[in-house]
């Protein structure tokens, strides 16, 4: 539901432990380097770790594996809220207008 509200395309998980989601529209560049920058932003600003497609030999940058089976549902909800904030900031401001002070409110207590 969180990905639907963010308008992030994904492959639904009928069975398994993760969802594969397409964040390519949010990359600063649709390259492996752009994927690495997005991954770093998620980790540094939101403390979220998602497995990038590059780590799974996906040829299209921007696809990420979101594993939901090994975390507490409350933790997953917090991560999705943080992800929503990151997605919103990128869409509103663009990569070139993101500053550190605009990202400090992503992590909530």
Question: What are the salient characteristics of this protein?
Answer:
4 strands; 4-stranded antiparallel beta sheet; alpha+beta; 109 residues
* Strands side by side in the biggest sheet: 1-2-4-3
Profile the largest sheet. Answer: 4 strands, antiparallel
Number of strands: 4
Q: Which regions are unreliable across 5 or more consecutive residues at pLDDT < 50?
A: none
Query: What does the radius of gyration come to?
Result: 13 Å
Helix content: 40-55%
Taking all residues together, what is the mean pLDDT?
87
Summarize the structure.
By secondary structure, this protein is of the alpha+beta class. 41% of the residues lie in helices and 13% in strands.
Provide structural commentary.
- The chain is α+β, with helices and mostly antiparallel strands.
- The protein is 41% helix and 13% strand.
- It has helices spanning 2-6, 32-46, 73-93, 100-103; strands at 10-11, 18-22, 51-52, 63-67.
- It has a 4-stranded antiparallel sheet, covered by helices on one side.
- A hairpin with a 6-residue loop joins strand 1 and strand 2.
- Helix 2 crosses helix 3 (73-93).
- The longest helix has 21 residues, at 73-93.
């Amino acid at each position: 539901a969180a990905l639907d509200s963010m308008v992030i395309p994904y492959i639904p998980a009928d069975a398994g432990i993760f969802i594969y989601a397409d964040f390519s529209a949010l990359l600063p560049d649709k390259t492996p380097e752009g994927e690495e920058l997005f991954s770093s932003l998620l980790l540094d600003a939101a403390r979220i770790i998602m497995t990038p497609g590059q780590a799974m030999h996906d040829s299209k940058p921007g696809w990420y594996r979101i594993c939901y089976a090994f975390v507490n549902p409350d933790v997953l909800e917090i991560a999705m809220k943080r992800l929503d904030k990151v997605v919103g900031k990128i869409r509103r401001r663009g990569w070139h207008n993101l500053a550190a002070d605009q990202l400090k409110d992503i992590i909530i207590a």
